[in-house]
Structures are given as structure tokens and as C-alpha cells.
UniProtKB/TrEMBL annotation:
Species in which this protein is naturally found: Polycladomyces abyssicola
PANTHER family found in the cross-reference section: HISTIDINE BIOSYNTHESIS TRIFUNCTIONAL PROTEIN, HISTIDINOL DEHYDROGENASE HDH
The protein's name in its UniProt record: Histidinol dehydrogenase
Residues at which substrate binds: 229, 251, 254, 320, 353, 407, 412
Classification via CDD domains: Histidinol_dh
Gene name of the encoded protein: hisD
Role description: Catalyzes the sequential NAD-dependent oxidations of L-histidinol to L-histidinaldehyde and then to L-histidine.
Length: 430
């Protein structure tokens, strides 16, 4: 079911679906038609792709109230506890503006302001992902974003799952729209009669959503282009093979393209995990998906020692990294590349997906080498503040002139010279 390989045989950069030219042209057409046709184009595409014949795109307060009546109180209590943990974690990420006065009267600083309006994309239709709602909306709310517009595709009856609506309300979403796909991205980027454009679009989606986000980038900001899910478990001889196998399968069941990799210096553990994967996979509802993922994207990598295991994990730069070793804190300092790190046997990846608090929107396909999880920083902008004093300008002015002239920018230099010359003439306003 799963290959056992050496470190040099691991594929460190998986091929990611970047879309066919036909898919790209389809997305270009949708973006243009929504940009020109507005709400009418959205309604037409919703009939065509989702089978829902809508007369309005917005979710009403009555629908939200009805959603609260559909969910159980037990589920709502769990959701609220998760939201509270996610909110408290992200509150620690908040930064404040700062100003630094220098002895000559100059003040330098940084002004931090939230984005005014953001859009979050939540996959829908036949599935419900309330956890994605929390993870995308709560950091925006903590950052101080006043308008959070959510788009998600309806089912054929024009309904949004009750759990999704309740999660949106609990997370501070200010408006919800029944539209999905590339057309939803277009609406958020360019606006329609009903949906006003946003400053940034975040959230996962299918290949059409990913392509649309790529194409509108520049008109609006985006978070990232996330690929299929992935997990790397680094484990030593002390790890429980049943638990390791269960954690690998927790990601393999996502998608046939999901990647689940065990890296271990223990051949015995490798053998027992391979056996446990076969047994546990047979019991899964999504066993066909998980089995294909393990067969085509998974691997068990046996290394010479733990040092080589860590080096191999850093080369993979995984979305999720579990350290199932005797002393995980002894090794965390050597981890250079990972979206999220889970330490010890009682920190399985699904805890991070739903409840622990850190964001589950993470860099994939090796991009953890240079990217970070979704955070409050994604929903703020920073302005540099420069208040130079008279003394400082006359002290540093000639340096600026020389540097500007060295680049051939005479007007830059003149902007400084005109002030220096006024001082040399002894005129009062200098």
C-alpha cells in the first residue's frame, strides 16, 4: 500500500495542479462576464454550476436564525470553545503602532491599520467546513477588519449548511453570499450591484477558485494558493505505530493527491506502521481515497539516525509536521521548515485542524520554506512614519544628495539642496 524508501528517494517537490489552458480560459471568461454582467452573471453561473435557481444572493437573518435551530447545543458548545481558543491565540499576534523619538527631534515609526474589507471563500455545495470559517474570519476580526464578506456555493435548493452559517455568525462575518467558484472570486475582486469589492481574498477552493485568485491578484490581495494537504511524521522507536498510522491517515483521507510521509530511523517502527496502515485504512469510510493517497503520494522513509530524519523533514518543508519522538523539545530547534509543528504523542494533527487555536490555513508543497500560516498579519497593513527634524535634515542632507546623484536622479537631489541652500543663506524659514 505504501512504499518504504531511503531519504534520497523522497520527492521533495510534488507536482501541483496548475490548471489546463482550457480551465484557465474558462476562468478568464467567468471573470470578464462577472466584471461586466454583475449580479446577473452570478445568478446565471449559480444556476449552471450549482443547480440553484436563486432570486437573491444574500443570506438573510431569518436563514441564520433557522440554522441555529438546526444545530445541536452540544455541537454549538464545541464550536464556541474552538472559536474562543482560536480568538485567544490570534489575539497574541496583534501588533501595535510604534514611534521612536531620536535625540535630535526626529521621530520614526510604523503605523498599523486593519484592512477595511476582506472576503473569505468557504467551499460548500455538498460539504460543510465550519472550521474553515473560523480559521479565516477570526484573525480578520481580531485584526480589526470591520467588513468580512463570506462567499460559499449553495446546494441545489439554494441552501447553505446550517453549521457553516452558525460558524460565520459566531466568527463575526458581517455578510454572507450564496455564490461559489471563480464567479465568487470575481465578485469579491471587482464588485457587483450587490457585492462590494474587497481589499483581500482568503480561503481555499478548487482549481477554478485557485486560478481565479491568481488572476485577480494585483487588483486585490490574496492569502496563498494552497495545494493538497500533507503531513510528515518524524518518529523514533518510542512511537506507537497505531497512533502514527492513524495520524497519517487523517491527511490521506482528504484527497488522492494528499501526501502522508513517515520518517524514522527505526526499521521496526516502519514495518509496524505499514501493517497498521493496511488494517486501519480498511475501516475508513473514505478508504478508497486514503488508499490511493498512500499508494501514489505516501512513503515511509527509513533514515540512518534522527539527525538525518530532521534534515529530510526540513527538505520536505511540510504543511504539518509531527514530532513523535521521546524528547520532542530537544529537536524543535533544528526544525527550519514547517507550516505547523505538533509535539509529542498527544498532539495529533486534527487537534490543530479544529481546536487548539493556531490557524489551520498553512503553506503547502514546500512553500513553508518561505511562507507562514494565515495570521492577524494577513489582515493589516503597515505604513512607515518619518518626521525628520531640522537638525537631522541639515546634518544628513549631503548624504542624501550624493546618493541621489549617484543614481542619476537630479530632482531627488534638488529637493534636498533647495533646503540646504536656504539654510546657507541664513533665511529664517530654513
Amino acid at each position: 500500500m505504501i512504499a518504504i524508501v531511503k531519504p534520497g528517494e523522497l520527492n521533495t517537490r510534488r507536482s501541483v495542479d496548475k490548471g489546463t489552458e482550457q480551465q484557465r480560459q474558462t476562468v478568464r471568461t467567468i471573470l470578464n462576464e462577472v466584471r461586466n454582467g454583475g449580479d446577473g452573471a452570478l445568478l446565471a453561473y449559480t444556476r449552471r454550476f450549482d443547480g440553484a435557481d436563486l432570486t437573491r444572493l444574500d443570506v438573510t437573518e431569518e436563514e441564520i436564525a433557522a440554522a441555529y435551530r438546526e444545530v445541536t447545543q452540544e455541537w454549538l458548545a464545541s464550536l464556541r470553545q474552538a472559536a474562543d481558543r482560536i480568538r485567544r491565540y490570534h489575539e497574541r499576534q496583534r501588533q501595535t503602532s510604534w514611534f521612536h523619538p531620536e535625540v535630535d527631534g526626529t521621530i520614526l515609526g510604523q503605523l498599523i491599520r486593519p484592512l477595511a474589507r476582506v472576503g473569505i471563500y468557504v467551499p460548500g455545495g455538498r460539504a460543510a467546513y465550519p472550521s474553515s470559517v473560523l480559521m479565516n474570519a477570526i484573525p480578520a476580526q481580531v485584526a480589526g477588519v470591520e467588513e468580512i464578506a463570506m462567499v460559499t456555493p449553495p446546494d441545489r435548493d439554494g441552501r447553505i449548511p446550517a453549521t457553516t452559517l452558525v460558524a460565520a455568525k459566531e466568527a463575526g462575518v458581517t455578510e454572507i453570499w450564496k455564490v461559489g467558484g471563480a464567479q465568487a472570486v470575481a465578485a469579491l475582486a471587482y464588485g457587483t450591484e450587490s457585492i462590494r469589492p474587497v481589499d483581500k481574498i482568503v480561503g481555499p477552493g478548487n482549481i477554478y477558485v485557485a486560478l481565479a485568485k491568481q488572476m485577480v491578484f494585483g487588483d486585490v490581495a490574496i492569502d496563498m494558493i494552497a495545494g493538497p494537504s500533507e503531513i510528515v511524521v518524524v518518529a523514533d522507536e518510542t512511537a506507537d505505530p497505531e497512533w502514527v498510522a492513524a495520524d497519517l491517515l487523517s491527511q490521506a483521507e482528504h484527497d488522492p493527491l494528499a501526501s502522508a510521509v513517515l520518517i524514522t530511523p527505526s526499521p521496526t517502527l516502519a514495518k509496524h506502521v505499514a501493517e497498521a496502515l493496511v488494517q486501519q485504512c480498511e475501516r475508513l469510510e473514505r478508504r478508497e481515497i486514503a488508499a490511493q493517497s498512500l499508494r501514489e503520494q505516501g512513503a515511509i522513509c527509513v533514515t540512518s539516525d534522527m539527525e538525518e530524519a530532521i534534515v529530510t523533514a526540513n527538505r520536505l518543508a511540510p504543511e504539518h509536521l509531527e514530532l513523535m519522538v521521546k524528547q520532542p523539545w530537544d529537536w524543535i530547534g533544528k526544525i527550519k521548515n514547517a507550516g505547523a509543528i505538533f509535539l509529542g504523542p498527544y498532539s495529533p494533527e486534527p487537534v490543530g485542524d479544529y481546536f487548539a487555536g493556531p490557524n489551520h490555513v498553512l503553506p503547502t508543497n514546500g512553500t513553508a520554506r518561505f511562507s507562514s500560516p494565515l495570521s492577524v498579519d494577513d489582515f493589516v497593513k503597515k505604513s512607515s512614519v518619518i518626521a525628520y527634524s531640522r537638525e537631522a535634515l541639515f546634518r544628513d542632507g549631503l548624504h542624501v544628495v550624493r546618493l541621489a546623484e549617484g543614481e542619476g536622479l537630479g530632482a531627488h537631489a534638488a529637493s534636498i539642496r533647495v533646503r540646504l541652500e536656504r539654510k546657507e543663506k541664513g533665511e529664517n524659514n530654513a
